[in-house]
Amino acid sequence: MEEMVLRLRNFCIASTTIMLLTVTVLVVAAQTAKLEPTQVGFSSNPSWKDVEQAMDVKSELKPDGAITFSIPMSLKVTLDDITLNPASDLTHDFDFMRAGNKTMMVGEIGLTETEVKNVTSMVLQSGLQVTAIHNHLLRTSPSIIWMHIYGYGDPADMAKKIRSITDYVNGKPPDKSEESFQSKGINTLPNSIRLLGQRALPKEGLWF
């Protein structure tokens, strides 16, 4: 009988000890979470910090390690006299992903018809490529044209060029101290060749 009581007492002591340890761990974890909050859905990788600074907007971190940026358009757009909100396909969107020792970027910029020519030149002069120009929606006022772009190179450099282009599209006055559109090891082919997206060889003044 005494042995049974002793076993029961030891069992109660062990159970109480385990419960106290569990509570202590939970309390410490909760306090740590309050002291060091995590930014769920946003990049916490220092290697993307310079890109976020250049884009001047927070990036959303994807499970595959890529980051995305969405910059709202400044235009008021209507569809059949109904005003569209930014969730209705009215943002400039860009994705960055590490590829080897460089970064691949794909994105799309919403433009009015009169902006297509200038923005095409800006994109190509930046060392980026234009991969598509098309509509997403019909019957909008003003008519919105979407330009898809591609780049491979230094991510911060591409981000600076992209932000300059979107600022121009959104009507923000250019910064006088801003560097001119020059690539930084991204692509140096002539504009017409970059637009086609294929490498060509010069022959007698022509490109094949």
Walk me through what this model shows.
With 208 residues, the chain is an alpha+beta fold. It folds into two domains: 1-37; 46-200, no CATH class. The chain is 35% helix and 26% strand. The chain is built from five helices and eleven strands. The protein has helices at 2-35, 49-55, 116-125, 155-169, 191-196, and strands at 60-61, 67-72, 78-79, 82-83, 91-99, 102-112, 129-134, 140-141, 144-153, 202-203, 206-207. The strands form three sheets. It has a six-stranded antiparallel sheet with strand order 1-2-5-6-9-7. Strands 4-3-8 form a three-stranded antiparallel sheet, with no helix packed on it. Strands 10-11 form a two-stranded antiparallel ribbon. The longest helix is centred in the N-terminal third of the chain and has 34 residues, at 2-35. The protein is globular. Mean pLDDT is 76; it is low at 25-30, 32-43, 176-180 and 182-188.
